[in-house]
Protein backbone atom coordinates (compact mmCIF):
# COMPACT_ATOMS: atom_id res chain seq x y z
CA UNK A 1 0.00 0.00 0.00
CA UNK A 2 2.72 2.45 0.92
CA UNK A 3 4.47 1.86 -2.43
CA UNK A 4 1.34 2.96 -4.31
CA UNK A 5 0.67 6.12 -2.33
CA UNK A 6 2.91 8.55 -4.31
CA UNK A 7 1.31 7.40 -7.57
CA UNK A 8 -2.16 7.94 -6.18
CA UNK A 9 -1.20 11.39 -4.90
CA UNK A 10 -0.02 12.32 -8.41
CA UNK A 11 -3.50 11.63 -9.78
CA UNK A 12 -5.14 15.03 -9.63
CA UNK A 13 -8.88 15.59 -9.90
CA UNK A 14 -8.43 16.64 -13.54
CA UNK A 15 -6.46 13.46 -14.30
CA UNK A 16 -9.11 11.33 -12.61
CA UNK A 17 -11.99 12.69 -14.66
CA UNK A 18 -10.10 12.81 -17.96
CA UNK A 19 -8.70 9.27 -17.68
CA UNK A 20 -11.73 7.57 -16.14
CA UNK A 21 -13.03 6.72 -19.60
CA UNK A 22 -15.03 3.68 -18.59
CA UNK A 23 -16.25 4.81 -15.19
CA UNK A 24 -17.78 7.97 -13.77
CA UNK A 25 -16.47 10.18 -16.59
CA UNK A 26 -17.97 7.97 -19.26
CA UNK A 27 -21.32 7.85 -17.51
CA UNK A 28 -21.39 11.65 -17.16
CA UNK A 29 -20.48 12.16 -20.81
CA UNK A 30 -23.09 9.67 -21.94
CA UNK A 31 -25.71 11.36 -19.81
CA UNK A 32 -24.87 14.78 -21.24
CA UNK A 33 -24.99 13.54 -24.82
CA UNK A 34 -28.18 11.55 -24.42
CA UNK A 35 -30.13 13.86 -22.14
CA UNK A 36 -33.36 15.36 -23.47
CA UNK A 37 -32.94 13.87 -26.92
CA UNK A 38 -29.54 15.42 -27.68
CA UNK A 39 -27.65 13.66 -30.45
CA UNK A 40 -24.00 12.66 -29.87
CA UNK A 41 -21.57 14.51 -32.12
CA UNK A 42 -20.66 12.35 -35.12
CA UNK A 43 -17.07 11.17 -35.43
CA UNK A 44 -16.52 12.95 -38.76
CA UNK A 45 -17.70 16.25 -37.24
CA UNK A 46 -15.30 15.78 -34.33
CA UNK A 47 -12.39 15.18 -36.72
CA UNK A 48 -13.39 17.78 -39.34
CA UNK A 49 -15.62 20.41 -37.66
CA UNK A 50 -16.18 22.40 -40.87
CA UNK A 51 -16.87 19.44 -43.15
CA UNK A 52 -20.09 19.90 -45.20
CA UNK A 53 -23.10 18.34 -43.52
CA UNK A 54 -26.62 17.73 -44.84
CA UNK A 55 -29.29 20.25 -43.76
CA UNK A 56 -32.63 19.29 -42.25
CA UNK A 57 -34.37 19.52 -45.63
CA UNK A 58 -33.64 20.51 -49.23
CA UNK A 59 -32.24 24.06 -49.21
CA UNK A 60 -32.91 26.88 -51.65
CA UNK A 61 -29.67 28.64 -50.73
CA UNK A 62 -26.23 27.19 -50.16
CA UNK A 63 -24.46 30.28 -48.90
CA UNK A 64 -25.06 33.81 -47.55
CA UNK A 65 -23.60 37.26 -48.14
CA UNK A 66 -24.86 39.62 -45.43
CA UNK A 67 -24.13 43.33 -46.02
CA UNK A 68 -24.55 44.91 -42.59
CA UNK A 69 -25.02 48.70 -42.54
CA UNK A 70 -23.87 49.44 -38.99
CA UNK A 71 -25.61 52.39 -37.37
CA UNK A 72 -29.15 52.11 -38.72
CA UNK A 73 -29.94 53.34 -42.27
CA UNK A 74 -32.97 55.61 -42.54
CA UNK A 75 -35.81 53.70 -44.16
CA UNK A 76 -37.70 56.98 -44.63
CA UNK A 77 -34.98 58.32 -46.93
CA UNK A 78 -34.41 55.06 -48.83
CA UNK A 79 -37.40 52.74 -49.15
CA UNK A 80 -40.53 53.97 -47.37
CA UNK A 81 -41.85 57.36 -48.55
CA UNK A 82 -44.65 58.74 -46.35
CA UNK A 83 -46.57 61.63 -48.00
CA UNK A 84 -48.49 62.34 -44.79
CA UNK A 85 -45.20 62.70 -42.91
CA UNK A 86 -44.03 65.25 -45.47
CA UNK A 87 -47.33 67.13 -45.17
CA UNK A 88 -47.07 67.32 -41.36
CA UNK A 89 -43.33 68.05 -41.30
CA UNK A 90 -42.51 70.59 -38.59
CA UNK A 91 -45.48 69.68 -36.39
CA UNK A 92 -45.13 67.94 -33.02
CA UNK A 93 -45.89 64.23 -33.32
CA UNK A 94 -49.30 63.25 -31.88
CA UNK A 95 -49.01 62.05 -28.28
CA UNK A 96 -50.72 58.75 -29.13
CA UNK A 97 -47.65 57.68 -31.09
CA UNK A 98 -45.08 58.23 -28.36
CA UNK A 99 -46.98 57.46 -25.18
CA UNK A 100 -44.91 55.07 -23.02
CA UNK A 101 -42.12 55.07 -25.63
CA UNK A 102 -38.40 55.44 -24.93
CA UNK A 103 -35.86 57.08 -27.23
CA UNK A 104 -32.09 57.19 -27.23
CA UNK A 105 -31.92 61.00 -27.54
CA UNK A 106 -35.27 62.54 -28.54
CA UNK A 107 -37.81 64.29 -26.35
CA UNK A 108 -41.42 63.21 -26.80
CA UNK A 109 -42.35 66.63 -28.18
CA UNK A 110 -39.90 66.33 -31.09
CA UNK A 111 -41.24 67.57 -34.41
CA UNK A 112 -41.97 65.38 -37.42
CA UNK A 113 -39.51 65.53 -40.31
CA UNK A 114 -40.50 64.82 -43.89
CA UNK A 115 -37.90 63.27 -46.15
CA UNK A 116 -36.17 65.62 -48.60
CA UNK A 117 -35.43 62.69 -50.94
CA UNK A 118 -37.39 62.04 -54.12
CA UNK A 119 -38.85 58.59 -54.75
CA UNK A 120 -39.86 56.84 -57.95
CA UNK A 121 -41.15 53.43 -59.01
CA UNK A 122 -38.63 51.11 -60.65
CA UNK A 123 -38.73 47.90 -62.64
CA UNK A 124 -41.80 46.01 -63.80
CA UNK A 125 -42.66 45.46 -60.14
CA UNK A 126 -42.81 49.19 -59.42
CA UNK A 127 -40.58 49.09 -56.34
CA UNK A 128 -40.39 52.46 -54.56
CA UNK A 129 -36.71 53.39 -54.19
CA UNK A 130 -35.27 56.83 -53.51
CA UNK A 131 -32.87 58.84 -55.60
CA UNK A 132 -30.14 57.99 -53.06
CA UNK A 133 -29.87 54.49 -54.57
CA UNK A 134 -29.81 54.84 -58.38
CA UNK A 135 -27.86 51.61 -58.96
CA UNK A 136 -30.08 49.54 -56.68
CA UNK A 137 -33.10 50.78 -58.61
CA UNK A 138 -31.76 48.96 -61.70
CA UNK A 139 -32.22 45.59 -59.95
CA UNK A 140 -35.60 46.41 -58.40
CA UNK A 141 -37.18 43.25 -59.82
CA UNK A 142 -34.54 41.03 -58.26
CA UNK A 143 -34.85 42.24 -54.65
CA UNK A 144 -37.50 41.89 -51.96
CA UNK A 145 -37.80 44.99 -49.78
CA UNK A 146 -39.15 44.50 -46.26
CA UNK A 147 -40.55 47.76 -44.86
CA UNK A 148 -42.01 46.21 -41.70
CA UNK A 149 -38.91 45.05 -39.84
CA UNK A 150 -39.06 45.41 -36.05
CA UNK A 151 -36.61 44.81 -33.24
CA UNK A 152 -36.58 45.02 -29.44
CA UNK A 153 -33.43 47.02 -28.69
CA UNK A 154 -32.77 50.71 -29.44
CA UNK A 155 -29.08 51.14 -28.55
CA UNK A 156 -26.42 50.25 -31.09
CA UNK A 157 -24.27 47.60 -29.42
CA UNK A 158 -27.12 45.52 -27.95
CA UNK A 159 -29.20 45.95 -31.13
CA UNK A 160 -26.33 44.65 -33.27
CA UNK A 161 -25.98 41.67 -30.94
CA UNK A 162 -29.71 41.05 -31.25
CA UNK A 163 -29.67 40.89 -35.06
CA UNK A 164 -26.48 38.87 -35.21
CA UNK A 165 -26.89 36.50 -32.26
CA UNK A 166 -30.57 36.56 -31.28
CA UNK A 167 -29.74 38.10 -27.89
CA UNK A 168 -29.08 41.66 -26.75
CA UNK A 169 -26.24 40.37 -24.51
CA UNK A 170 -22.87 39.39 -25.90
CA UNK A 171 -21.71 35.80 -25.59
CA UNK A 172 -24.19 34.00 -27.83
CA UNK A 173 -23.13 32.41 -31.15
CA UNK A 174 -23.44 34.67 -34.17
CA UNK A 175 -25.68 33.83 -37.09
CA UNK A 176 -22.69 32.87 -39.26
CA UNK A 177 -21.42 30.57 -36.51
CA UNK A 178 -24.84 28.86 -36.28
CA UNK A 179 -24.87 28.35 -40.05
CA UNK A 180 -21.41 26.78 -40.24
CA UNK A 181 -22.19 24.72 -37.13
CA UNK A 182 -25.32 23.46 -38.87
CA UNK A 183 -24.07 22.68 -42.38
CA UNK A 184 -20.29 23.18 -42.33
CA UNK A 185 -18.46 24.76 -45.24
CA UNK A 186 -17.60 23.77 -48.79
CA UNK A 187 -14.17 25.43 -48.61
CA UNK A 188 -11.06 23.48 -47.66
CA UNK A 189 -8.59 26.35 -48.04
CA UNK A 190 -10.49 29.31 -46.59
CA UNK A 191 -12.65 29.81 -43.47
CA UNK A 192 -16.32 28.92 -43.67
CA UNK A 193 -17.32 32.25 -42.06
CA UNK A 194 -15.44 35.40 -43.10
CA UNK A 195 -15.90 39.02 -41.97
CA UNK A 196 -14.90 42.04 -44.08
CA UNK A 197 -15.03 45.61 -42.73
CA UNK A 198 -15.09 49.07 -44.27
CA UNK A 199 -15.75 52.58 -43.05
CA UNK A 200 -13.87 54.82 -40.62
CA UNK A 201 -14.06 52.39 -37.67
CA UNK A 202 -15.29 48.98 -36.63
CA UNK A 203 -18.92 48.36 -35.62
CA UNK A 204 -19.98 48.90 -32.02
CA UNK A 205 -19.93 45.52 -30.32
CA UNK A 206 -16.77 44.34 -32.05
CA UNK A 207 -15.66 40.72 -32.33
CA UNK A 208 -18.57 39.16 -30.35
CA UNK A 209 -20.80 40.12 -33.30
CA UNK A 210 -19.15 37.34 -35.30
CA UNK A 211 -18.08 35.16 -32.38
CA UNK A 212 -18.97 31.53 -31.75
CA UNK A 213 -20.23 32.00 -28.19
CA UNK A 214 -20.60 28.60 -26.55
CA UNK A 215 -20.14 26.76 -29.85
CA UNK A 216 -16.64 25.43 -30.64
CA UNK A 217 -14.42 28.30 -31.70
CA UNK A 218 -13.85 26.83 -35.18
CA UNK A 219 -17.26 28.29 -36.11
CA UNK A 220 -16.43 31.91 -35.28
CA UNK A 221 -16.03 34.49 -38.04
CA UNK A 222 -12.51 35.20 -39.30
CA UNK A 223 -11.90 38.92 -40.01
CA UNK A 224 -9.91 39.60 -43.18
CA UNK A 225 -7.94 42.82 -43.42
CA UNK A 226 -7.26 44.63 -46.67
CA UNK A 227 -3.87 44.26 -48.26
CA UNK A 228 -1.56 41.39 -49.15
CA UNK A 229 -1.60 39.96 -45.59
CA UNK A 230 -5.30 39.61 -44.78
CA UNK A 231 -4.66 37.76 -41.51
CA UNK A 232 -2.01 38.82 -39.00
CA UNK A 233 0.84 36.39 -38.29
CA UNK A 234 -0.24 34.07 -41.10
CA UNK A 235 3.10 34.15 -42.92
CA UNK A 236 5.89 31.79 -41.88
CA UNK A 237 8.74 33.29 -39.81
CA UNK A 238 11.93 34.19 -41.64
CA UNK A 239 13.98 31.10 -42.40
CA UNK A 240 11.05 28.66 -42.18
CA UNK A 241 10.12 27.16 -45.55
CA UNK A 242 6.93 25.27 -46.42
CA UNK A 243 8.51 21.87 -45.81
CA UNK A 244 9.56 22.75 -42.25
CA UNK A 245 6.19 24.38 -41.69
CA UNK A 246 4.47 21.16 -42.84
CA UNK A 247 6.60 19.08 -40.49
CA UNK A 248 5.66 21.35 -37.59
CA UNK A 249 1.93 21.21 -38.40
CA UNK A 250 2.07 17.41 -38.73
CA UNK A 251 3.82 17.03 -35.38
CA UNK A 252 1.32 19.29 -33.60
CA UNK A 253 -1.51 17.43 -35.32
CA UNK A 254 -0.26 14.08 -33.99
CA UNK A 255 0.11 15.42 -30.46
CA UNK A 256 -3.36 16.95 -30.53
CA UNK A 257 -4.88 13.71 -31.86
CA UNK A 258 -3.29 11.77 -29.00
CA UNK A 259 -4.81 14.17 -26.50
CA UNK A 260 -8.20 14.19 -28.21
CA UNK A 261 -8.32 10.38 -28.07
CA UNK A 262 -7.98 10.62 -24.29
CA UNK A 263 -10.29 13.55 -23.54
CA UNK A 264 -12.77 13.67 -26.46
CA UNK A 265 -12.62 17.47 -26.09
CA UNK A 266 -14.21 19.11 -29.18
CA UNK A 267 -11.96 22.17 -28.76
CA UNK A 268 -8.97 19.98 -29.64
CA UNK A 269 -10.63 19.19 -32.98
CA UNK A 270 -10.99 22.95 -33.41
CA UNK A 271 -7.29 23.40 -32.66
CA UNK A 272 -6.32 20.75 -35.20
CA UNK A 273 -8.58 22.29 -37.82
CA UNK A 274 -7.19 25.77 -37.12
CA UNK A 275 -3.58 24.69 -37.63
CA UNK A 276 -4.44 22.94 -40.88
CA UNK A 277 -6.51 25.87 -42.14
CA UNK A 278 -3.78 28.37 -41.27
CA UNK A 279 -1.23 26.31 -43.19
CA UNK A 280 -3.42 26.17 -46.30
CA UNK A 281 -4.34 29.84 -46.04
CA UNK A 282 -0.71 30.85 -46.34
CA UNK A 283 -1.24 30.50 -50.07
CA UNK A 284 -5.03 30.67 -50.47
CA UNK A 285 -5.64 33.93 -48.56
CA UNK A 286 -3.15 36.08 -50.51
CA UNK A 287 -4.47 34.54 -53.74
CA UNK A 288 -8.01 35.52 -52.74
CA UNK A 289 -6.99 39.12 -52.07
CA UNK A 290 -5.17 39.42 -55.40
CA UNK A 291 -7.85 40.76 -57.74
CA UNK A 292 -5.47 41.54 -60.60
CA UNK A 293 -7.06 38.74 -62.61
CA UNK A 294 -10.49 40.39 -62.58
CA UNK A 295 -11.52 42.11 -65.80
CA UNK A 296 -11.51 45.88 -66.11
CA UNK A 297 -15.27 45.82 -66.67
CA UNK A 298 -15.82 43.89 -63.44
CA UNK A 299 -13.69 46.31 -61.42
CA UNK A 300 -15.55 49.28 -62.93
CA UNK A 301 -18.93 47.69 -62.30
CA UNK A 302 -18.14 47.35 -58.59
CA UNK A 303 -16.39 50.72 -58.40
CA UNK A 304 -13.09 49.26 -57.17
CA UNK A 305 -10.26 51.82 -57.22
CA UNK A 306 -6.88 50.10 -57.43
CA UNK A 307 -5.70 48.72 -54.08
CA UNK A 308 -7.79 51.20 -52.09
CA UNK A 309 -9.74 49.48 -49.26
CA UNK A 310 -13.47 50.03 -49.70
CA UNK A 311 -16.90 48.48 -49.45
CA UNK A 312 -16.73 48.00 -53.22
CA UNK A 313 -13.59 45.91 -52.92
CA UNK A 314 -15.16 43.89 -50.11
CA UNK A 315 -18.21 43.12 -52.25
CA UNK A 316 -15.92 41.75 -54.95
CA UNK A 317 -14.00 39.73 -52.35
CA UNK A 318 -17.31 38.37 -51.04
CA UNK A 319 -18.07 36.97 -54.47
CA UNK A 320 -14.60 35.43 -54.68
CA UNK A 321 -15.02 33.90 -51.21
CA UNK A 322 -18.30 32.17 -51.97
CA UNK A 323 -16.83 30.96 -55.27
CA UNK A 324 -14.11 29.35 -53.15
CA UNK A 325 -16.69 27.61 -50.98
CA UNK A 326 -17.02 29.89 -47.93
CA UNK A 327 -20.48 29.46 -46.44
CA UNK A 328 -21.17 32.82 -44.79
CA UNK A 329 -19.57 36.17 -45.67
CA UNK A 330 -20.49 39.27 -43.69
CA UNK A 331 -19.61 42.80 -44.77
CA UNK A 332 -19.77 45.53 -42.12
CA UNK A 333 -19.92 49.14 -43.34
CA UNK A 334 -20.04 51.78 -40.61
CA UNK A 335 -21.23 55.35 -39.99
CA UNK A 336 -24.96 55.06 -40.73
CA UNK A 337 -25.82 56.69 -37.38
CA UNK A 338 -27.32 59.94 -38.67
CA UNK A 339 -28.51 61.93 -35.65
CA UNK A 340 -27.71 65.28 -37.21
CA UNK A 341 -24.80 67.64 -36.67
CA UNK A 342 -21.64 68.01 -38.76
CA UNK A 343 -20.90 64.79 -40.63
CA UNK A 344 -24.06 63.06 -39.40
CA UNK A 345 -26.87 64.97 -41.10
CA UNK A 346 -29.68 63.16 -42.90
CA UNK A 347 -28.84 64.82 -46.22
CA UNK A 348 -25.14 65.14 -47.06
CA UNK A 349 -23.76 62.40 -44.78
CA UNK A 350 -26.48 59.90 -45.66
CA UNK A 351 -25.98 60.58 -49.36
CA UNK A 352 -22.27 59.86 -48.93
CA UNK A 353 -22.91 56.50 -47.24
CA UNK A 354 -25.34 55.57 -50.03
CA UNK A 355 -22.78 56.57 -52.65
CA UNK A 356 -20.25 54.20 -51.02
CA UNK A 357 -22.51 51.13 -50.99
CA UNK A 358 -25.13 51.55 -53.74
CA UNK A 359 -23.05 50.73 -56.81
CA UNK A 360 -21.15 47.74 -55.37
CA UNK A 361 -24.28 46.25 -53.76
CA UNK A 362 -26.11 46.25 -57.09
CA UNK A 363 -23.00 45.05 -58.94
CA UNK A 364 -22.67 42.11 -56.56
CA UNK A 365 -26.21 40.92 -57.27
CA UNK A 366 -25.72 41.31 -61.04
CA UNK A 367 -22.34 39.58 -60.96
CA UNK A 368 -23.70 36.64 -58.97
CA UNK A 369 -26.56 36.27 -61.45
CA UNK A 370 -24.25 36.38 -64.47
CA UNK A 371 -22.12 33.62 -62.95
CA UNK A 372 -25.12 31.44 -62.10
CA UNK A 373 -24.55 31.90 -58.36
CA UNK A 374 -27.48 34.12 -57.36
CA UNK A 375 -30.05 31.32 -57.51
CA UNK A 376 -28.43 29.59 -54.51
CA UNK A 377 -26.73 32.56 -52.79
CA UNK A 378 -28.82 34.56 -50.33
CA UNK A 379 -27.89 38.26 -50.34
CA UNK A 380 -29.04 40.43 -47.40
CA UNK A 381 -28.72 44.22 -46.87
CA UNK A 382 -29.71 46.06 -43.70
CA UNK A 383 -28.76 47.31 -40.24
CA UNK A 384 -29.72 46.91 -36.59
CA UNK A 385 -32.72 49.30 -36.67
CA UNK A 386 -34.09 52.32 -38.53
CA UNK A 387 -34.67 56.03 -37.84
CA UNK A 388 -37.53 57.97 -36.28
CA UNK A 389 -40.17 59.96 -38.21
CA UNK A 390 -39.29 62.81 -35.81
CA UNK A 391 -36.30 64.95 -36.62
CA UNK A 392 -33.30 65.53 -34.37
CA UNK A 393 -31.71 68.97 -34.54
CA UNK A 394 -28.03 69.20 -33.71
CA UNK A 395 -26.49 72.62 -34.36
CA UNK A 396 -29.06 73.30 -37.05
CA UNK A 397 -28.22 70.12 -38.99
CA UNK A 398 -31.09 67.65 -38.96
CA UNK A 399 -30.99 63.91 -38.43
CA UNK A 400 -33.15 61.17 -36.92
CA UNK A 401 -32.98 59.11 -33.72
CA UNK A 402 -32.94 55.31 -33.41
CA UNK A 403 -36.22 53.60 -34.29
CA UNK A 404 -37.18 49.98 -33.58
CA UNK A 405 -40.88 49.81 -34.53
CA UNK A 406 -40.53 49.89 -38.33
CA UNK A 407 -37.48 49.81 -40.58
CA UNK A 408 -36.32 48.34 -43.88
CA UNK A 409 -34.05 45.61 -45.20
CA UNK A 410 -33.76 43.98 -48.61
CA UNK A 411 -32.91 40.46 -49.74
CA UNK A 412 -32.19 38.78 -53.08
CA UNK A 413 -31.37 35.38 -54.59
CA UNK A 414 -31.28 32.07 -52.70
CA UNK A 415 -35.02 31.32 -52.74
CA UNK A 416 -36.25 34.90 -52.24
CA UNK A 417 -39.18 36.12 -54.32
CA UNK A 418 -37.85 39.31 -55.90
CA UNK A 419 -39.81 42.27 -57.18
CA UNK A 420 -41.94 42.68 -54.07
CA UNK A 421 -42.24 45.08 -51.16
CA UNK A 422 -43.41 43.28 -48.05
CA UNK A 423 -45.09 45.09 -45.18
CA UNK A 424 -46.77 48.41 -44.62
CA UNK A 425 -46.37 51.08 -41.99
CA UNK A 426 -48.84 53.68 -40.75
CA UNK A 427 -49.04 56.97 -42.63
CA UNK A 428 -46.25 58.54 -40.55
CA UNK A 429 -43.97 55.52 -40.94
CA UNK A 430 -43.94 54.95 -37.19
CA UNK A 431 -45.39 51.46 -36.68
CA UNK A 432 -45.47 48.34 -38.86
CA UNK A 433 -49.16 47.65 -39.43
CA UNK A 434 -49.08 44.86 -42.04
CA UNK A 435 -46.85 41.76 -42.42
CA UNK A 436 -44.72 42.67 -39.41
CA UNK A 437 -41.32 40.91 -39.55
CA UNK A 438 -39.48 40.65 -36.24
CA UNK A 439 -35.71 40.10 -36.12
CA UNK A 440 -36.30 36.51 -34.95
CA UNK A 441 -38.58 35.95 -37.98
CA UNK A 442 -35.79 37.20 -40.25
CA UNK A 443 -33.35 34.80 -38.59
CA UNK A 444 -35.75 31.87 -38.89
CA UNK A 445 -36.28 32.66 -42.58
CA UNK A 446 -32.56 32.88 -43.31
CA UNK A 447 -31.97 29.47 -41.72
CA UNK A 448 -34.99 28.02 -43.54
CA UNK A 449 -33.59 29.06 -46.92
CA UNK A 450 -30.41 27.14 -46.05
CA UNK A 451 -32.46 24.03 -45.27
CA UNK A 452 -32.22 24.48 -41.49
CA UNK A 453 -35.19 24.32 -39.13
CA UNK A 454 -34.59 27.05 -36.55
CA UNK A 455 -36.43 24.95 -33.95
CA UNK A 456 -34.06 22.01 -34.45
CA UNK A 457 -30.73 23.81 -34.87
CA UNK A 458 -29.82 23.75 -31.17
CA UNK A 459 -26.82 23.35 -28.90
CA UNK A 460 -26.90 22.21 -25.30
CA UNK A 461 -25.19 24.61 -22.92
CA UNK A 462 -25.50 24.97 -19.14
CA UNK A 463 -28.35 22.50 -18.98
CA UNK A 464 -30.61 23.79 -21.73
CA UNK A 465 -30.87 23.72 -25.52
CA UNK A 466 -30.14 27.12 -27.06
CA UNK A 467 -31.00 28.27 -30.56
CA UNK A 468 -30.49 31.42 -32.64
CA UNK A 469 -34.14 32.47 -32.41
CA UNK A 470 -34.37 31.86 -28.64
CA UNK A 471 -38.03 30.84 -28.07
CA UNK A 472 -39.45 32.98 -30.88
CA UNK A 473 -39.43 33.29 -34.67
CA UNK A 474 -41.47 32.11 -37.61
CA UNK A 475 -40.55 31.69 -41.27
CA UNK A 476 -41.84 34.57 -43.44
CA UNK A 477 -43.51 32.52 -46.16
CA UNK A 478 -44.36 35.56 -48.33
CA UNK A 479 -40.67 36.19 -48.92
CA UNK A 480 -40.09 32.74 -50.42
CA UNK A 481 -40.07 32.13 -54.16
From TrEMBL:
**PANTHER family (UniProt xref):** BLL7424 PROTEIN (PTHR43737), DUF1501 DOMAIN-CONTAINING PROTEIN (PTHR43737:SF1)
Q: What is this protein called?
A: Sulfatase
The organism named in the record is: Symmachiella macrocystis
Amino acid sequence: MHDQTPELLDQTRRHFFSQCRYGLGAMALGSLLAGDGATPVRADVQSHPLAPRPPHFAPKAKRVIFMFMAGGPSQLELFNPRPKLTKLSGQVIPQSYVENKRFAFLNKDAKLLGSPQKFARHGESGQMISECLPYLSTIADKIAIVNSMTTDVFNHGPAKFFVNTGSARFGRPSIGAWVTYGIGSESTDLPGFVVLQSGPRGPRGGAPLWGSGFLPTTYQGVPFRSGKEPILNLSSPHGIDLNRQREFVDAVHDLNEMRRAVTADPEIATRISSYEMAYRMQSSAPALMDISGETRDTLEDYGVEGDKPSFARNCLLARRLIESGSRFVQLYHTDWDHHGGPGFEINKALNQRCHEVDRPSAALVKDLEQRGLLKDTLVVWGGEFGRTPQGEDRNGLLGRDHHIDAYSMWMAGGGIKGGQTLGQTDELGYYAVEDRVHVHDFQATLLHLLGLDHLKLTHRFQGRDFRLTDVHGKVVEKLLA
